[in-house]
Amino acid sequence: VSLNAGGASTGNFTTLGTLAFGGGTHEIDANISGPGTVRFGGGTINLKGGTYNLGGGTQATGGTANFNSGVNLVSVGATLSVSNIFGNLNFTSGEAISTSTLIMDEGLLSGSDNITVSGASSWTGGNMRGSGQTTVNGSLALAANNSTELDGRTPNMNGGGVLTGASNLRGVNGAVFNNAGLFDVQSDAIFLHLGG
Questions:
Q1: pLDDT tens-digit map of 2-55
Q2: Quick one: which of 68, 91, 97, 108 has the fewest CB in 10 Å?
Q3: What b/e readout covers 11-25, taking b as 16+ CB neighbours within 10 angstroms?
Q4: Is the dihedral of CA 175, 134, 49, 76 positive or negative?
């Protein structure tokens, strides 16, 4: 099912496949649940009520999804991914978020909610921003490619990781990167502090 051009939605959405949001501004005060995936592909989606409980995953492929404090955020699904420069997942629900895999190629992962990832993950581009923490308990593949930026948010790498890429890994606004495992630096990457 694709929802495009904005509007307000209430009621129940059961995702057996993919529920896709396109352009426009959507105000969502509805239950979204099921074994499938939700894709935020365009526009701005404000989730302000109801229960969000997925088995498949949550994807930002070009849109902005704001998970606000009125949402009962039970599960984002097995995979949380941001894969477009215009994709933004903003978590300010007040809930603790858990997923099996984080895939971040571009875009923005932001907000005050803490995210815990149990399995292997990748961060090869994009910006982590906000006051929350991202804890990865599996291995993390990290790339320094001048588009990977840490802006205030704190990643905790508990399962070890590998850093590749010969460009910049940028930090700003008091960015802290905690590592409790083996961090294998395999390139001449530059840790660049931009201020703040």
A1: 777 788 888 899 999 999 998 899 999 999 999 999 999 999 999 999 999 999
A2: 68
A3: eebebeeebbbbeee
A4: positive
Q: Which two tokens stand for residue 182?
A: 């083996």
Owner of token pair 């005050």? 112
CB 113 within 8 A of CB 92: yes
129-151 pLDDT, tens digit per residue, is: 999 999 999 999 999 887 889 99
Report d(CA 150, CA 135) in Å as an integer: 14
Give the type of residue at 163: L
CA distance 138 to 131: 22
Instruction: Give Cβ neighbours of residue 156 (< 8 Å, ≥ 6 apart).
Output: 133, 134, 135, 136, 178, 180
Beta bridge partners of 7: 26
Cβ–Cβ under 8 Å, residues 54 and 37:
yes
The answer to whether residues 124 and 105 touch, using CB atoms and an 8 Å cutoff, is yes
